[in-house]
Protein: Inositol-1-monophosphatase
Amino acid sequence: MLVFALPFSLKHMSDTLTARYWTACAVARSAGQLAYRYFQNLESITVESKGIQNPVTVADREVENLIISRLSHCFPTDQFLAEESGGERCDDQVWVIDPIDGTSNFVRGIPYFCVSIAYVVNQEIKIGVIYDPSRDELFAAFYGKGATRNDQPMEVTHCQELSSAMIGLDIGLRTSMELGLKAVQQLVLQQSVIRHLGSAALALAHVADGRLDSYWNPHLNPWDVLAGQLLVQEAGGWTSDFLAQDGINKGNSILACAPALRPALQQATEIQGSAT
Structure:
């Protein structure tokens, strides 16, 4: 039997969402610590490929196994959708997990990766937790209750103009080259500072924490986005609606930003629709 000691008792939590929130925070931190131990010994890890520019390692699998086993131990009837092990079609209540978002950075020794855990109920993201083990930063959001970094409240920036904005973006192989180049050209012409970061989840956490003014990616999977989307929303930011058009099963685009930047960024990226 799996023995997993939480730093609190679930027995006295009548609110099951609250119990899941605190459990997700504890599990994300443990999972991130495991990922970081692998990161410190990269020479011992074999890197496999799931496709072009899509690496996977034993670290991804072991971290994912840890997350699922510990959440299952606490909530035996819960369902899971995870990057490495997949899951069934999700329409009701589900944990959405990326064990290491930013694996390409991870395998090259670049400390820009994270653990991402979200809990979705009836197409609403209720819990979002991201842990950055390289900086020991835990980003957490509870629907309607705000967002924190290491228990301190977070807020998006008040950036008003693209000429003052720092924008994170990642453009993958599933993106129209024409759309990607057009958007980047418009942002550069507006004198925005652009950063290609390689971890959507961590970049979204940094939008929520005011380190970035925006993040854009034309197509991602749900495990890359959902925790970070809730962080941005609960920190006062605006996001497009990733879950629209069956995004939890098919993937979608994501745009997240300080509210004042929304019109200009929607025009540049051609992303419409709002989740907030």
